[in-house]
Amino acid sequence: MCQRGKLARAKSRVFDLRQRILPSARRLCLDLVSLNRQKDLLQTRLDNAAHLSDLYAKRLATGDAGILEVNKIDLEQLTVRTEVRRTDAAIIQKQQELQALNGGVAVPFIASAYEAADDLPPFDGLLSEAFTRDPS
Predict the structure, then answer these.
(1) Percent above pLDDT 90 for the chain
(2) What CA–CA distance (Å, rounded) separates 12 from 82?
(3) 3-state secondary structure of 57
(4) Quick check: 110 pLDDT over 90?
(5) For the chain, how many helices (H) and strands (E)?
(6) What are 45-49's contacts with CB under 8 Å, separation 24+?
């Protein structure tokens, strides 16, 4: 009988631990999805800034643009590059937190799209169900 009690307590502790860890892991995964999406957008901005920088460098060489425009575009490129690095650092931090929650085992996580939400039933159906369950 004592063994069953110990087993039940151990199972209860495992269950409690899972109930504390799972919401944290879910939050981290949602953060990672957000950061991965942000990184994708920043990468597009960086590609556009690089293309624009090349274009304006050519225009500067032909005299169609001034050095001020070229410097503004180069500054934008530098700013976006810095944002990409910050986002990469945040992704690494979140992945390390997720790994710590997983007992030190790395979790490959590259998703950049949120899970589709379940469709809600029509409002009329919910309303009629609420009225049928109402005890008063």
Answers:
(1) 51
(2) 47
(3) helix
(4) no
(5) 3, 0
(6) 45/80, 46/77, 46/80, 46/81, 46/84, 49/73, 49/76, 49/77, 49/80
Q: For helices 67-101 and 2-62, what crossing angle results, to 10°?
A: 170
Among 136, 49, 34, 132, CA closest to 87: 34
Contacts of 37 (CB under 8 A, 6+ apart): 112, 113
Per the model's pLDDT, the better-predicted residue between 105 and 134 turns out to be: 105
pLDDT for position 57: 93
- 54/111 Cα distance (integer angstroms): 32
The tens digit of pLDDT for each residue in 34-85 reads: 999 999 999 999 999 999 999 999 999 999 889 999 999 999 999 999 999 9
**Using alpha carbons only, what angle is made at residue 72 by residues 70 and 73, rounded to the nearest 5 degrees?**
65
Alpha-carbon span 72 to 24, nearest angstrom? 42
Q: What is the DSSP letter of 116?
A: P
Q: Which two tokens stand for residue 69?
A: 């425009």
DSSP label of 113: S
Q: How far apart are CA 43 and CA 63, in angstroms?
A: 30
